[in-house]
Design brief:
This protein is α+β, with helices and mostly antiparallel strands. It is built from eleven helices and ten strands. A four-stranded mixed sheet has the order 1-4-5-8. A four-stranded antiparallel sheet has the order 2-3-7-6, covered by helices on one side. It has a two-stranded antiparallel ribbon with strand order 9-10. Strand 2 and strand 3 form a beta hairpin. Helix 8 runs antiparallel to helix 9 and helix 9 packs antiparallel against helix 11. The protein is globular and about 80 Å long. It starts with 6 loop residues before the first helix and ends with a helix.
Length: 379
Amino acid sequence: MDFTLTEEQIMIRDAARDFAKTELLPGVIERDEKQQFPAEQIKKMGELGFLGMMTDPAYGGGGMDTVSYVLAMEEISKVDASASVVMSVNNSLVCWGLETYGTEEQKQKYLIPLATGEIIGAFCLSEPEAGSDATSQKTTAIDKGDHYLVNGTKNWITNGGTASVYLVICQTDIDKGHKGINALIIEKGTEGFEVGLKENKLGIRGSDTHSLMFNDVKVPKENRIGEDGFGFKFAMKTLAGGRIGIAAQALGIASGAYELALQYSQERKAFGKEISKHQAIAFKLADMATEIETARLLCLKAAWDKDEKKNYDLSGAMAKLYAADMAMRNTVEAVQIHGGYGFVKEYHVERLMRDAKITQIYEGTSEIQKIVISRSILK
């Protein structure tokens, strides 16, 4: 066992931390209130290589390991989870999915601009009646010979309005069930493809979340990812890696709230001394620090499994389940430590508490993670 980070990993972590403090922190409260997508900041993230961290340099990426990605995700998420979810989707779902399963032509056309941050992508699985039950796809892609005709609706799509490339999971043959599902690449601006209104959300309000509507959208056969019927497997394999990114996001949200609570507890006085010197607060901080370190080790273990080409279904699910639940507990405690100030927007912790909730829901709810874990341990 070696828990030492390499010089490169430390450099990446520190660069992400510096970017979060200098570029993301200014205006983060205002962006949250106005539901404003951090377009300028995302552009800079692309220029610095944060949107294609693990992609092969041959396709414009950084060629970094998953551990480096987790470290960077934590630091960005400490400050702005709306920015980090863009980073997570583009890296874990879109770029990784295309690089791993796409054709060379698809990589040249789509992966390079995605990895360099020239454009961003979206992963489209959830529907009005198909969230956790991904096999119940109602969006159809009817085979018309040289193209598919796509009809249906996708819900809660991150980067829904700002993406240029969408990976859309569709049902081609309902009689084959999950083996009749395909993954198609659909470009923004394609005739019949409409973006719905932006969702007014509890947290990650700067994130661009929309419904998407497809009405007789023609998609050429060369835009299918993998063989016919590979779509469900593609979605599950891609989401398994995506869980690691969201686990790291949850870790970052919790760790950002903890750092604010720790600092506040050493400045705020009550009954003649700093509140950190009262056992009630000191013990809260001790529990928070321990849980955060536990989540961090789970995230790094899942990332290491992925880098070592080991099966990371179990470790990724464990990391996401624990980190997401831990983030909710610890952001609530951070608000409590701040007292009345914790309820005020300018102290940041109430926003982090709202942002934490979604980590228990998207890219597989906590209940779905328990299904994945229990199936794995009962084999």
